Amino acid sequence: MPARKPPSSKEYQGSHLFPLIQCFLLDIQHLHYPSISFSPQLSSYLHCEWATIAQLEKDKRIHQKLKRFKTKMAQMRHFFHEDEEPFNPDYVEVDRILDESHSIDKDNGEPVIYYLVKWCSLPYEDSTWELKEDVDEGKVQEFKRIQSRHPELKRVARPQAGSWKKLELSHEYKNGNQLREYQLEGVNWLLFNWYNRQNCILADEMGLGKTIQSIAFLEEVYNVGIRGPFLVIAPLSTITNWEREFNTWTEMNTIVYHGSLASRQMIQQYEMYCKDSRGRLIPGAYKFDALITTFEMILSDCPELREIEWRCVIIDEAHRLKNRNCKLLDSLKHMDLEHKVLLTGTPLQNTVEELFSLLHFLEPSQFPSESEFLKDFGDLKTEEQVQKLQAILKPMMLRRLKEDVEKNLAPKQETIIEVELTNIQKKYYRAILEKNFNFLSKGAGHSNMPNLLNTMMELRKCCNHPYLINGAEEKILTEFRDSCHHHVPHDFPLQAMVRSSGKLVLIDKLLPKLKAGGHKVLIFSQMVRSCAAMMMMSSIQLCPTLGDSVGQISSTSSDLALLL
């Protein structure tokens, strides 16, 4: 979908006069709604302004929006923090500049420059045209640097194996970054395999920097004269981290290919292809050096990705390829991939069949037959089998553990805190046991097992939070309100929710202290509703990442406390 044409200067200056029915109601400034922040259509969040209810109510077409907005705010009044931003501050930070347009101001005849801006944490389809004066000059210079590059029309051949030279010291990458000693060893190993046409698996333990080693490897390949295109395939939750590390360590032009059809069409139009002076695509010439995308994009069978001759592909979380019959593997086989690098912290997790799937994808000619492979290594009972498999894997797999390479790392500390149940939890726990006494007294017979499992799940819910039990929330709120007599606090639903769970009482005290100490926190829960409760009770900004999380991931997600 082509981007909107830049407005004329007159339209731009009067953009706040657009019909209010096209506004986005964003947030309230005070509890009694004296004013509301809105952003007119065709404008970015940069031009949001506050409007009073009286101003908005003059337009009858917006009455229904106001009604829904007030209802929503009334429901959230106990969990609303007045010092919160009306919208994500990222929305006014320039991510990338996509295009440039020149026009003449109709009023004074002066030349006007507009830039098509893609905003941080917003999809490409929400890009807007902005006056030059409103755009960060650093981003303008970055855009001009990319635009001034000459397209690579001649395919540069990969150097011969004999030209490989070991890097004795880490180069100084962008921002003065340097590799650790073991990371330099990993980059040397990746380069050696690249020079020798050997696809490989980097299987370092999580936390040793597989992402950084991979990016440094691509940077070294780039400096040899192979300017891409490089492909990185990663889970949705990690693509923003990949983009950030590329921008931190290299000067490569890296784009993220993800989002709705409209966003992807904009990426194709402005970010992917080089064009000649007449605006025609130059075959085989690409504006980007590295493209980051998700497994879902590969599965969706994007022809625009299949038609590119990729000089190298890096697949993060490659254990997703362990099922030989998975659709993802089939999709990858239809892509032109000159060199393959797999990243995984668990190369051999369950069965030898899974390992064969990875090896067959990397080197189909070397590992053509699953039956023959399983015949040799299917059971791995003898030492001879293990040694033979290790000899096969040694040239193409590098596996290191933290204790092997990071001698300065402090040992992991694990503290188990026994949290006492609240009186409310004890009451419901006892009620669950009494209600299911007949089942419990029968023991763990085959016919009684489903009843026991259901009882166990109810007890687990109670230990997390009694609100997870059907009907408990309403009863607890009523009892809490009655116990307050005539002095019911305005945030009584929040207080009742926290006081009902021993775990929430602890977390409510712990999170502010951890934040004050500058810590990052990961909170894991197997129950989605427990995450929802913590989202509502916390005064600290949290970023939920649930099993069904899809869509745009905030670029700041990894800097916040996460609910998983």
SSE topology:
Blueprint: H1 9-13, E1 35-38, E2 49-52, H2 53-57, H3 63-75, E3 94-104, E4 111-119, E5 128-131, H4 137-147, H5 181-195, E6 200-202, H6 210-224, E7 230-234, H7 239-249, E8 254-257, H8 261-272, E9 273-275, E10 281-286, E11 290-294, H9 295-299, H10 303-306, E12 309-310, E13 312-315, H11 327-333, E14 336-337, E15 340-343, H12 352-362, H13 370-377, H14 383-393, E16 397-398, H15 402-405, H16 423-435, H17 437-441, H18 449-464, H19 472-483, H20 492-499, H21 502-516, E17 522-523, H22 528-537, E18 542-544, E19 561-563
Parallel strand pairs: 6-15, 6-16, 7-11, 7-13, 8-11, 12-14, 13-15, 17-19, 18-19
Antiparallel strand pairs: 1-2, 3-4, 4-5, 9-10
Helix pairs in contact: 5-6, 6-7, 12-13, 16-18, 19-20
| End-to-end Cα distance | 35 Å
Strand content: 5-15%
Instruction: Give the helix/strand class.
Output: alpha/beta
Largest beta sheet: strand ordering: 8-11-7-13-15-6-16
Number of helices: 22
The main β sheet shows up as: 7 strands, parallel
Overall body shape: globular
Instruction: Name the poorly predicted regions.
Output: 1-41, 547-564
Please state the CA-atom Rg, rounded to the nearest Å.
Answer: 29 Å
What is the residue-mean pLDDT, rounded to a whole number? Answer: 79
Query: What is the helix content?
Result: 25-40%
Number of DSSP-assigned strands: 19
Describe the oligomeric state of these chains in a short phrase: single chain
